[in-house]
Structures are given as structure tokens and as C-alpha cells.
Specification:
The chain is α/β, with parallel strands linked by helices. It has 7 helices and 12 strands. The protein has a single domain, classed as Spore Coat Polysaccharide Biosynthesis Protein SpsA, Chain A, CATH 3.90.550.
């Protein structure tokens, strides 16, 4: 029997206008998964999820260090609120990758494929070596803590730059991913917008079709935040 992998969402109240779309889509495609929300303050929009409050005067890495010990799960999918699902999740692959992470065979598996010439892994032919980055990722909670403790207190951008990933971090490559932009492809198993917010505005330049549909569904006026 499979497991509904717990999901941990990092967000901030300055992104509240994105929440209806993000959580609406998350619950549409993953209705049975437990959802933790790591956020700077509580809000009624989050009342049906498990909230973990961080101190937003602290850097990004320290916020996670405060939050992760409060998450009573071994292996999770973590993501941010502007990584919005737009199609069905392939749970057969999610379960397969969950088992690899949960068993300790790999440290993390990123759901997106970024251009790489790395060969397929001997562990699983649909995986290739990858650096760890802030994208929807299956990871063991203790491994995430170790990554955070390997660097000084940093903001999100410097954390991605400074972290030294070993050869046990992977990303998914099935082989028929659609190119999206210059550096990444659409995820086949976890189809999400990467990312919906670019420099504070809706990313219409890469995801016009997907976002137009969702704006109508969730009654969002994109011009209030702005578009790029």
C-alpha cells in the first residue's frame, strides 16, 4: 500500500493573494496528503492545515531550522507557494521516489528536470545527478537539516549558491519532458509552474496559458500584482 507523502509549504503573508490558487490546486490534485504550512504568522486561510510559525526577522535558513523540528514526518515534499500544480500528479513515480528517499538510498529527488548531460543513475534510470535547489523536492527531514547546518545563516538565493550537494542528490528525467524557457523543462510527474511569481509579478511570459485559466478559476485579477 502506498503512502500519501506529507507536503511542507514555505510561504509568507505577503503572498496571500497567491494562496487561493496555490492551495486550491494542491488540494485538487493531492486531496489526501497532510499539508504543513511554514509561515511568518497565522491566518484564517490556513485554518484547515498544520501551521508552523517562523520568525521573519531571521534569515531563510534559520527559519527552516526553527520549523523542521516541529514537523513530525520523516520524508516530505517541500515547495514554495508560487510553485503551482496545473495537472495530475503521477503518484506511481512519487511512491517509487519516496521509497528511495525514505530508505536512505538517495538524499533528495527534485521533481523538475533542468538541462543536464549527466547519465542515468544506476539506482533508477529515471534519475540523474543534480545539485540541490529550491524546487519541489522529496527529501528526508534530517537530510534537509544537515544541508541547512552545512552553511551559515543565509537568504534563499545565497543558500542555493552556497550549498555543496554531494552525488546523492537527484532530479527526475523521463526523457520526453517539454522544454520550458531556457534552463528547465516541464515536470511530467509533478506538473507545476516554475515559478508563478517572477520578481514579484505573475510570470505570464512563460506560463500564459496555464495562468490565464487559473486566474479565471480563482477569480484573480493579475494586474493587481502585475505581470511580466
Amino acid at each position: 500500500m502506498g503512502i500519501d507523502v506529507p507536503i511542507v509549504v514555505y510561504t509568507h503573508t505577503d503572498m496571500k493573494d497567491v494562496w487561493s490558487m496555490f492551495f486550491g490546486q494542491l488540494k485538487k490534485y493531492l486531496p489526501n496528503n497532510k499539508i504543513y504550512v511554514v509561515v511568518n504568522e497565522d491566518d484564517t486561510q490556513l485554518s484547515d492545515m498544520i501551521r508552523i510559525i517562523y520568525d521573519d526577522t531571521k534569515p531563510y535558513t534559520e527559519r527552516w531550522k526553527e520549523a523542521l523540528p516541529q514537523i513530525n514526518e520523516e520524508t516530505i515534499i517541500f515547495l514554495h507557494e508560487d510553485m503551482i500544480l496545473f495537472d495530475e500528479v503521477d503518484m506511481s513515480y512519487i511512491q517509487r521516489y519516496y521509497d528511495l528517499v525514505n530508505s536512505g538510498m538517495v538524499e533528495s529527488i527534485k521533481m523538475i528536470y533542468t538541462n543536464s548531460t549527466n547519465p542515468p543513475s544506476d539506482i533508477d534510470s529515471t534519475l540523474v545527478n543534480s545539485t540541490f535547489s529550491i524546487q519541489p523536492t522529496l527529501i528526508n527531514r534530517n537530510n534537509f537539516v544537515s544541508l541547512l547546518e552545512s552553511v551559515p545563516s543565509l537568504n534563499i538565493w545565497d543558500f542555493e549558491k552556497e550549498i555543496e550537494s554531494n552525488d546523492n542528490h537527484y532530479m527526475v528525467r523521463l526523457g520526453n519532458e517539454k522544454q520550458r524557457g531556457i534552463y528547465h523543462c516541464d515536470s511530467i510527474i509533478f506538473p507545476y509552474i516554475a515559478t508563478a511569481i517572477n520578481k514579484g509579478k505573475w510570470n505570464m511570459s512563460e506560463y500564459r496559458e496555464e495562468l490565464d485559466k487559473l486566474f479565471g478559476e480563482y477569480n484573480i485579477n493579475p494586474f493587481e500584482r502585475g505581470i511580466v
